[in-house]
Structures are given as C-alpha cells and as structure tokens.
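Reading is simple: each integer encodes one residue's backbone shape. An example follows:

___
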Amino acid sequence: MTLAGSGEGISREELQLAARNHGLHLEALCYPITPVGLHYLLIHYDIPEVDPGEYRLELGGRVSRPLSLSLTEIQARPAVELAVTMECAGNGRALIEPHVVSQPWLQEAVGTARWRGTPLRPLFREAGLEDGAVEVAFAGLDQGVEGGEEQRFERSLPLTDAMRPDVLLAYEMNGLPLPPQHGFPLRLLVPGWYGMASVKWLSEITVLDRAFAGFQQAHSYRLRKQEDEEGVPLGRILPRALMAPPGVPEFLTRQRVVEAGACLLEGRAWSGFGGIESVDVSPDGGRTWSPAELEHDLDSPWAWTAWSFEWDAPPGEHDLWCRARDEAGNVQPLKPEWNLGGYANNAVQRVSVLVR
C-alpha cells in the first residue's frame, strides 16, 4: 500500500481495480441473504481456470499422514451450511486521509451468503497433527506479482482458530456451486474474520511449527502506521452498521431525496466478536442518538442483524448516522483511525439526505 500525493484523487490504477472488483449496492441490504451477483467481490490477481475433475487439495506439513483429496471426495464428507457475513478488511479505505492507494472501497465491501461445505477440523485429525504444530497456511491457485516477487495468495491461521468447528472447506454459495469469481471449486470459509482469511481457489494446506512468513501475512493485511513497523495481522471483523439509503438518489452525488414525514430507516449490523447488542441512529449528524429496533432474521451467529428506526423527517438537509455495538462491548468510532493499509476503518456511516 502507498500514499497518494497531496491533492491527488483516485488513480488510473485504482480505477482498474475498482472495475475488476465490486461492492454491495447498499439498497440490497434489504436481502437477508445477498444474491450472488450483489455480494462484494475482491480478486487480487486473476481468476484461475480450474478443471474440477483434475482438482486436488493437498494437506501436509507437520502431520503424520498427508492427505490428497479430490473435489468428489471432499463433497462426500459430512456437510454443514452456514449463513456468514463476509467483509473486506479494506472496507472504508477511500474515506480516510491521507489517501491510501489500493482498491478504493467506500463502505460497500460486504455481503452475506449461505455457504455449504465440510468442516476442516476432521481433516487434521485424519492427518494426525504432530507435536509443535502452531499455525496453518492456506494457499490458493491464483498467482501474481506483489512486493516485487511472483507468488500465490497465501494466508495463515493460528492452529486454534483453524480447528474451530465452523471453519469450512466451502464448495457451494447460496445453494449452487461456487462461481469462478468466488473461488470455484473450493475455498476456505473463516466465519467472523475479514475476507482475506477465507482463501479462494484453495489448493494447499500446510501445518507449520512456526509463524507463516508469506507476503499476504507478514507484509500485507497488517495493522501498522509505518513501513518499518512490524504491526499485527488482521483477524476478526470490527462492528459496523450500514443503512440502506432512504428515498431516491441524485444521480451524480448520490445525495438522497426524501419526502417529509414518517420515514423508516433500515439497515444491517454485524461483528466478528459476537452478536450485535445495539444499533443507535442519529438524524442530526451525531448530536443526538436514539436506539433502533433489532431483528435477528437469520439463524446464524455469524450473520448480520437487521435494524430499523422510525424517523419523522423534517424539511431541510440532514446527515444521518448509524452506529453498532457488539456483545463484546466494541463500538464503532465516529472518526476513522488511519493506518498504512487503510484497513479496518469501521467509522460510522454518514448519509446525506434532502427532505422535501
């Protein structure tokens, strides 16, 4: 990640990234389960072409009995389906200053899908973990150049997290085989963690006796404020509430136009640290706050929670804010905290509204 020069806007390179990737249209927050075509999407390199008949998943490293499994063998194993909200770690990057040059997300890099797959933990038991195993690295089939070197996309998890019963090898999304852009034929699913942990086009799992030092673990996706700072790797999703913008938009500015009177504000909130305890709404730019009503319309601890708020909209211009608090006590900040990668910016959403 790099900083843009003073006064620079979005670069040509960032526009190329924005054209390849896409976020959720916020009006689609009305869907408990995000339709596949509306779910946020980030592709680091290229979408690999994979022959499912030739595909193998290799599990090795600090294990007694390495495994090599076909897609058919994986799909024949006991299956689990989970509704999981997934968010990109860079969500909100374009809203912080100074500007960080990378995928220019506003606040739309999120989606909730029903993922079906087989739990990862039984594979470790079959392979037989050896003494000293502390971390697990996951490698995808996608390749590119980053940090001046050719590499695959690779991330790791502490062994204790990889052994969670809800960490899945997922091969279906919303009842259909994974689409190519979402990791066909197999991806990792790590509920509650930012999306970089859920490695797509998964091909190799390696159990390690040391911390993984791959580029996407040791350099990228780390919270740090200086290049020479070690920082800490990103993990669980910080709480966030998003509002489905009310009324209708002005085409270019996206300012919302609403009729005066009763106006139902609705949205969704989520966190990787547990359920949502509360959502508060401010119709006056953060001066006053009122609690929204919550509705747990999905039967999953890892899926977002619906919220609603009745607003008596007076004529004029208004700045609507919403803020979530999770069961662990984490609450969204009013302003973002800058870091080198523009990561984990969960500052409150602000929606400009003109009431007629």
Q: What stands out?
A: The chain has five helices and 24 strands.
